[in-house]
Amino acid sequence: MRTQLQSFSSATSQWPDPAQWPIREWVAEAVQTLRDLPDWGLLGVLFGAALLGGGLLLQVAAAVRWLRAWRSRRLGSWGEHAALGLLAGAGYRVVARQTTRRYRVRVDGAWCEVELRADFLVERKGETFVAEVKGGPVVCDPLHTPTRRQLLEYEVAFEADGVVLVDVPGRRIRRVAFPLAD
Predict the structure, then answer these.
(1) Beta partners for 100?
(2) 178, 155 contact by CB (below 8 A)
(3) Which of 90, 132, 143, 152 is the most buried (most CB within 10 A)?
(4) 166 contact partners, CB below 8 Å, separation of at least 6
(5) Parent domain of 43
(6) Rounded to the nearest 5°, which phi and psi values hold at 138?
(7) In angstroms, rounded to a whole number, what is the distance separating the alpha carbons of residues 139 and 92?
(8) How confident is the model at residue 23 (pLDDT cuts 50, 70, 90)?
(9) What is the pTM of this model?
(10) Is 162 exposed, middle or buried (0-12, 13-18, 19+ CB in 10 A)?
(11) What is the 3-state secondary structure of the chain?
């Protein structure tokens, strides 16, 4: 063991002193070259470096957005798979997955058609429900404003007997009803 340590210490002493590294010479030459440039040349170099840095920053931001979207899709897919078990255990039968409906909305007197996609269309005891799967702690609350509005839109667009919110982390299914005028 002693001979291995001695050979290691002698091998590490062969590394050049950081003060003698060639990079120092290159940096010194680069700095001198920049000093020798006219003012407009130095501004051009700085402008080019800023553009390159900005482009790199935009690429990193795009990669982060893509990774977040990929993670969200993965979590959504896992949540829908877990929701199938919850629904089956509660006596619901899945009629359709990722089903869409088109319905009309009047905007400034003109009718416009919009499309809406729901996670599941399910049946239980002769009634049809739109099932929305949620996996986050806040969005699982049917009183959370965006979730509540989404469920309300499902009830209007799908003309089902009701809507259910599948809370995957809480492992529960909640039936949500709105007082809609007939």
Answers:
(1) 117
(2) yes
(3) 132
(4) 83, 86, 87, 119, 131, 132, 133, 134, 173
(5) 2-59
(6) -85, -45
(7) 22
(8) confident
(9) 0.59
(10) middle
(11) CHHHHHHHHHHHCCCCCHHHCHHHHHHHHHHHHHHHCCHHHHHHHHHHHHHHHHHHHHHHHHHHHHHHHHHHHHHHHHHHHHHHHHHHHCCCEEEEEEEEEEEEEEECCEEEEEEEEEEEEEEECCEEEEEEEECCCCCCCCCCHHHHHHHHHHHHHHCCCEEEEEECCCCEEEEECCCCCC
Note the pLDDT of residue 94.
93
- Tell me the average pLDDT across 164-179: 90
**Do you know the residue count of the chain?**
182
Residues 111 and 154 in one domain: yes
Check whether 175 has a pLDDT greater than 90: yes
What is the amino acid identity at position 122? V
CATH number assigned to the domain comprising residue 101: 3.90.320.10
Nearest 5 degrees, angle CA 97-CA 140-CA 134? 25
Q: Tokens representing 99?
A: 């089903």
Domain assignment present for residue 69? The answer is no
CA dist 77 and 62 (Å) reads 22
